[in-house]
Amino acid sequence: SFCESLSGCLVIGNAAFFGGGGWESTLLNCELIANAAVGGAGGGAATSRLVNYFLSGNWARGDSVGGGVCGGELEGCVLEGNTSEGAGGGAYNAVLTQCLLTNNAAVMGGGAATGTLSGCTLAGNRAAQGGGAWCAILSLCQLNGNQASDAGGAAGPTAVLPSRPRDAGRKGEGVRRRRAGAPPADAGHPFRSRLV
């Protein structure tokens, strides 16, 4: 459970070892701007629940991870321009639903590292490995214009992009469906993530 609850707040320029802007809190309709985690984790927030939140310019410095957030749950949030000197420029080891991660930067996972993302858009993020995501599980996500200087512009080498196998264990199913005028077995399937 979470300790504190904030609604409609503006949280600017705070610093801590863990959760520069907030720690173990529920944050609703707020903004976290220019907060920092120094040597710990979660420049903007750590192990918190964020709903309809805007996180921008937060920073995880030193050996820190999660420029925007580390851990916790985010729904309908925008993570923009956050930086981690380790992993997860926007988010590290968090559960994100219907979020936008854009223009974040890290060594690994510019947009997100580890964690689970569902229905999110990762655009214009940068990293050495996994420009958009690194070691994360993505479902129904779009990855647009992310960059990696080393490997995995959209997603790092161990990122998992769930999708339904083309034949779903029954050989010829796709061929039978197309002959009957139906779309291919994987067209528009809800577990297909899109790399653009």
Notes on the protein architecture:
With 196 residues, the protein is mainly beta. Strands 2-5-9-13-17-21-25-27 form an eight-stranded parallel beta sheet, with no helix packed on it. The chain has one helix at 173-179, and strands at 4-7, 10-12, 15-18, 25-28, 31-33, 36-41, 45-46, 49-51, 54-56, 59-61, 69-70, 73-75, 78-80, 83-84, 91-92, 95-97, 100-102, 105-108, 112-113, 116-118, 121-123, 126-129, 133-134, 137-139, 142-144, 147-151, 194-195.
Strand content: 35-45%
Task: Return residue spans where pLDDT drops below 50 for at least 5 consecutive residues.
Answer: 164-194
Question: What general outline do the C-alpha atoms trace?
Answer: globular
Roughly how much helix do the residues carry, as a percent range?
Answer: under 10%
Distance between the termini: 38 Å
Order of helices and strands: EEEEEEEEEEEEEEEEEEEEEEEEEEHE
**Number of beta strands:** 27
- How many strands, what sense, and barrel or not for the largest sheet? 8 strands, parallel
Number of helix segments?
1
Average residue-wise pLDDT: 82
Any idea what the radius of gyration is?
18 Å
Strand order of the largest sheet: 2-5-9-13-17-21-25-27
Condensed summary:
This protein is mostly beta strands and 196 residues long. The chain contains one helix and 27 strands.
